[in-house]
């Protein structure tokens, strides 16, 4: 849940981050210049503007329901509702499934007037946690399509074959553990 709370705060505060003031120059003589850290090329999750949320809407009076696929920043109409999705999130497949979308829903009351009836995160796994409370319409989140990198900078890939095996011949990666004694070979004529 903390992921979604952090995202809610990030969406709510859309002002650009303040840039830190430049530090005053030091008067001491510079020491040997250190090499800049090597850039790490890490794949990132799908950017927010490329994520697609699937929503469902229901008109309780007519019984009409409709599914929608919507990207961040897009707006769609259902009955007298205007639904805008600002962001959607889902957890990676290796974590417990949680999906949410930040929606802003307006109800058109006349040709020129709108009334905001909902603004917040809706959760697919807990639709009653933060629902649209409207006597005529229901809107809920079904999914958010996004991908995650398979590996990151701290990923350890374990395999049976490769560097460090006895067959690889790489002494730097060989184990430093003491070797087990070789099993005694049985004589072909000895009883078992």
Automatic annotation (TrEMBL):
Q: Where is this region: Disordered?
A: 151-192
Which UniProt keywords are present, listed alphabetically? Answer: Signal
Xref: InterPro entries: DUF2155
Q: Which segments show compositional bias classed as Low complexity?
A: 174-192
Q: Could you say which residues form the signal peptide?
A: 1-17
Q: Which organism is it from?
A: Glacieibacterium arshaanense
Put simply, this protein is called DUF2155 domain-containing protein
**Pfam assignment, any one:** DUF2155
